[in-house]
Amino acid sequence: MGGGRGRIATTAVGAVAGAVAGQAVEGAVTARPGVEITVRLDNGRVLAVTQEDEGEGFRVGERVRLLTDRYGNARVAR
Q1: 43-49 long-range CB contacts below 8 Å, 24 or more apart?
Q2: Smallest Cα–Cα separation from 63: which of 78, 46, 44?
Q3: Considering only CA atoms, which of 13, 52, 49, 46 is closest in space to residue 31?
Q4: How far apart are CA 45 and CA 66, in angstroms?
Q5: pTM score of the predicted model
Q6: Using one digit for the tens of pLDDT, what is the confidence trace for 8-24?
Q7: Largest pairwise CA distance in the chain
Q8: CA atoms of 7 and 40, how far apart (whole Å)
Q9: Whose C-alpha in 23, 34, 58, 63 is 20 to 30 A from the C-alpha of 6?
Q10: What's the mean pLDDT in 51-60?
Q11: Which of helix, strand or coil describes residue 29?
Q12: pLDDT at 30 over 90
């Protein structure tokens, strides 16, 4: 769109639009169903863990294991 300020503005708008479009495509490709599980630990502390839904079908009151990695990421398992 011409030169000078118009060109700079067009470049900036194009860069933002490209970033938004790229983020939308990445989200569509990497999106997976998830589940949030609220866990009450034996010490009474309550945690909410969000993880990929792998069809475990946890039930209210069911005892589960809380697994954590060395980075502090948690996962609920049977």
Answers
A1: 47/74, 49/74, 49/75, 49/76
A2: 78
A3: 52
A4: 12
A5: 0.59
A6: 555 555 555 566 666 66
A7: 67
A8: 57
A9: 23
A10: 93
A11: helix
A12: no
